[in-house]
Amino acid sequence: MIQAGLMGADKIEWMNARKYMYQLLIVMFSTPMSQESYSLIKDNVQTNGFPEEISDGDFLKSFFQEEESFAIQKAREDYFRLFVGPDSLPCPPWESVYRGKDRALFDYPTFEVRDLYSSFGLEMKKQEGQHDEADDHLIYELEFMSILIDKVLDADSPAEQTAALLGQKKMLDEHLKKWIPDLAQDILTNASSLYFQGSANILNSFIQFDSELVNELL
Amino acid sequence: MSNGFFNELNEKKISRRKFIKWSGAVSAPVVLGGIATTGNMVKKAGAELAAKKADELVLTTCSTVNCGGRCLIKAHINNGVVTRLTTDTKADTFELPQLRACIRGRGYRQFVYNPDRLKYPMKRVGKRGEGKFERISWEEAIDYIAKELTRITEKYGPASRYSNYASGHSGSIIGAGNMIQRLFGLTGGYLGFHNSYSSAQTTNATPFTYGTTQTGSTLDNLSHSKMIILWGHNPVETRFGVTDFYVRKAKENGVKIVVIDPRQSDTAVALADEWIPIAPTTDAAMMDAMTHVIITENLYDKSFVDQYCVGFDENHMPDGVPEGESLKSYILGEKDGVPKTPEWAEKITRVPASTIRRLAREYATNKPSALMQGWGPQRQAYGEQFVRGGTVLAAITGNVGVKGGWASGAGYISLVKTTAVPKGDNPVGLTIPCFLWTDAIVRGTEMDAKDGVKGLAEEQDTLPVNMKAMFNLAGNTLINQHSDCNKTAEILSDESLLELIVVSEIFMTPSAKFADILLPSNTFMERWDVGTTWAPSQQAILSQKCIENMYESKSDYEWMTMLAKKLGVEQKFTEGRDELAWIKWSIEESRKTDPNFPTFEEFKKEGIYQVSLEGNSVVAFEQQIKDPKNNKFETPSGKIEIFSKALWDMNDHEEIPAIPKYISSWEGPEDPLTEKYPLQLIGWHYKRRCHSTFDNNKWLEEAGPQVMWMNERDAATRNIKDGDRVKIFNDRGEVHMPVKMTNRVIPGTIAIPQGAWWSPDKDGVDQRGNVNTLTSQRPSPLAKGNPQHTNLVEVARV
Prior knowledge:
The complex is a heterodimer of chains A (218) and B (798). Chain A has 218 residues and is mainly α. Chain A is built from nine helices and two strands; from the N terminus they run ααααααββααα. Chain A has one domain: TorD-like, CATH 1.10.3480.10. Chain B is built from 24 helices and 28 strands. In chain B, helix 16 links the parallel strand 15 and strand 16. In chain B, helix 4 runs parallel beside helix 17 and helix 5 runs parallel beside helix 14. Chain B has three domains: 238 residues, Rossmann fold; 212 residues, Dimethylsulfoxide Reductase, domain 2 (3-Layer(aba) Sandwich), CATH 3.40.228; 126 residues, Beta Barrel (Barwin-like endoglucanases), CATH 2.40.40. Chains A and B meet through helix 1, helix 2, helix 6, strand 1 and strand 2 of A and helix 1, strand 1, strand 4, strand 6 and strand 20 of B.
């Protein structure tokens, strides 16, 4: 719930804009493209509305000019090939793979982000008897950002706002900024769909932009 | 910070203008009905906010991939994650050697936490083998398998169902292949298999000499030998338990070590006093010539052969065999006019006659000595002759049943016996040699006893039906490790032949590419089992479940339980037990025959059951030699059968001789095909892989890159330089890979380390270096075993 006393309507709007960006990225990278997500992105994302620091490299525009079912199919295939498998992954979406020395999961970044989540009372949803996912998967790091933006919006006090912003700064500066450029480069090199060329550009440029922004806010 | 931090924004670098503009970019919350953009994270249970560091947990585990060594691995677990591995650190003693990990064991974290693991069940969407898959749920996968299996069983009968030879999960209790056979058995039966890809020729041939494959002694014996001949045996790289440790101890005791191998293996480099290079497929000729020296120079143990053996000379032959068929008669050339002299053998084997003569004299006169056979040379077209030849050399020199000697042959011995979950009965009762599964797909209804089919009823001449449903669980023999990848791919791709292929795997291997349903398997760190080594073996290691199943992976037993439920036999299949309960059951069963076998609690605490050799030394056939009256060999004659009447009665004397003979091999050095393909090709077990497992481990690739070995002389005549990418080809296929020029391989032979993942380009040319692109599906005559070191090829620059 928004505390009117802490933020003006325009600031709430900006915070929401950041949140929408994270949610957009989650949609882009968390599931294979469907008819639903295709329409949603097409209808809700105005790429010419981005500030100049954020760019999709005009790939999305071209993507949405392609024949729809062909475009969706291609984006789906790309999604599995890049991030899920079953073949060897050209862009494994885990921070540990990019920053650990073994190119394997569960290196030190996993534990660092796990501690960070925990310090905000958060942990990953788990099924009994399975270890579904590692904590430093791209989607969890993005979701963490989205949740902490909500915490700013829902804060009862300036101290809570600051704490939530500091959490975002830590995730951005100590994690996302350190591996997203390499991941995005791998996606640009390996993606065969315009969609993921565009998504990778947005991901990379937005993370840089948002880090600057959060640092300025603090 | 002031209470409205956005108020300060105007004065900062990021302008208000940008914000205003930007806030219009994504116009509405991007939240989809079917897509949760939040909700993967939840509020932490409990009041503690900061993650409390739990104490580190250390569990023993053991790679139950098909590794010959089975080292002791200690997984250090923090908050459910294996953060590092250590290995055996106890004192290293002669009786109880340390079971330290080699480079493979030290790479297990990269195996378990490799980002390329299969994560979800998949269903094929493209043509078979094309590699196109879509994610499905476990329920969909199990439904599909149950439906197809039922349809195929109704249409073709249960003999159309098969579980392929697979060793990727070689836990000794609850192996994937055994468990699916158990499930098949409960639902009507299946076509079974016998043999293995490791040791078919030796497990079939050795009993014709000794009546058993259990011809191994405990390895402390080696320190009592005067000489050890490792014939095609490379324990330093292949890890037969701790064989290399005991060979090294023997060496330290002054025992002379000789390695006979086309390649100067790491064993030859590290342990041998002498390396004798030999042309592949000609081992039996060298053995014949050694026998010639031993007979003609009267170096054989006359009283031993008279008392314990059948068939050495014409005076000791079984009834009903014409004259001139004894070993002596053959070796001296009394019937065929060809005495098997060292000079005769030199032309075939490329081993100098003087070397053969010297080795024969040394072996026969330095008693006791150990002739240990590796399994490589028996994986050739006539590998049975190599096996039998070795046993006969051991016998005529009286090296059987004595401390410091070695009976040769298969060499099995295990001081630790584990109990596997029973497979149960197979109502179909038929088995094929595992190497002939591709034949059973294409011409099963033509396959009879001559093809090695076992279990045929009297009125039944052939298999009743071709193979239709294939389960390939934790194995790469569906293509990679089977012979002739191109031919195999053609058979698998024909969707009218096999109508169902189910694969469970950890990675997208070449075999997994041919799945209709591809199931993500967990790894040994996510399941319970017990690991035992290749023989000679003196240990069992409790391979504990260290971490939860990753992603949506399951153990084979877990998904088979789902399938059993769907097929209505869950209770019979599980008997109410999960994997851990089976382990406990198995331990109690083992304790019935071996009271020293630890209880589950003890096993869990120590992690290992390792039997000290102190007081447990075993010499194979000691009783038969010491007290022959009361201890017969398990052969038809009760003696060591140099001449086997059973083989004689098979009536195929050219290819299945009753005494060991050199048989000039197809695609051997004497084959006229050498005019077209002048080079022999062999594979070898590379230290950086277990068969094909770990081929995708980048660390191990650095330690052992995939290169072909070629002698400098052969390279020079082809204008090939070290490091060049070359093509290796024959009528079966073509491989492109880098070459290593070396004098560590005999001229005329090239060697490609086996197990690389077959990676055909669009023209079918393998780009990784899979030796089986070039190997043949023609089986050996007696065992119907794989002849994968029998190949002729040519090499040229790409």
